[in-house]
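Thread amino acids onto this structure.
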């Protein structure tokens, strides 16, 4: 059932809004969905709450899921209390982290105004975030030759230049880029290079 959760179901489980950040790199997520109330986002941004938000601090320090009411983190700016005045009375945050040296983190927060989340709802949301985290993982099957070609595309080199520098035919470069596009789910060589760069592969 968790695998079937889509935007509509997420909206039903989080009628007060939600925020999803997938594959956070040095500063920014690879994919982000902010469906929180606009008034809250504006207030949150103006008050610079991100540095003090106990939900964010928990999401960066933990793996798993937690109801906001169970967070044992200082809240000097009363972020959670202020969120309640914008209809975000009850919430749950989910955090997922890869294993390994270049581990990437994804997290999401879901909110409602009427009641606490049930254990089943938390499990469903956790499964959803984990699935989206895994779906956006960088491919591990790109060859060195494909990455080399993508790196040159990123640097703005044309097909002829790439072929000349690699001492291969233009057809060979085209094939490498075609394979790379397929593996990255990209439509163009430029898009494939941008994705590979975003994943830290080139």
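Threaded sequence (202 positions):
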């Amino acid at each position: 059932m968790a695998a079937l959760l889509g935007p509509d179901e997420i909206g039903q489980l989080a009628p007060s809004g939600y925020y999803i950040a997938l594959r956070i790199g040095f500063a920014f997520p690879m994919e982000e969905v902010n469906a929180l109330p606009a008034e809250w986002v504006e207030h949150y941004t103006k008050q610079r709450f991100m540095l003090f938000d106990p939900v964010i601090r928990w999401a960066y320090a933990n793996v798993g899921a937690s109801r906001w009411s169970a967070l044992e983190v200082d809240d000097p700016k009363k972020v959670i209390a202020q969120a309640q005045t914008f209809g975000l009375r009850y919430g749950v945050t989910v955090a997922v982290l890869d294993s390994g040296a270049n581990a990437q983190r994804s997290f999401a927060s879901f909110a409602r105004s009427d009641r606490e989340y049930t254990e089943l709802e938390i499990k469903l949301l956790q499964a959803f975030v984990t699935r989206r985290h895994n779906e956006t993982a960088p491919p591990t099957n790109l060859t060195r030759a494909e990455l080399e070609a993508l790196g040159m595309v990123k640097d703005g080199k044309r097909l002829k230049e790439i072929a000349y520098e690699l001492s291969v035919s233009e057809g060979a470069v085209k094939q490498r880029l075609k394979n790379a596009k397929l593996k990255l789910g990209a439509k163009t060589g430029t898009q494939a290079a941008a994705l590979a760069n975003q994943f830290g592969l080139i």
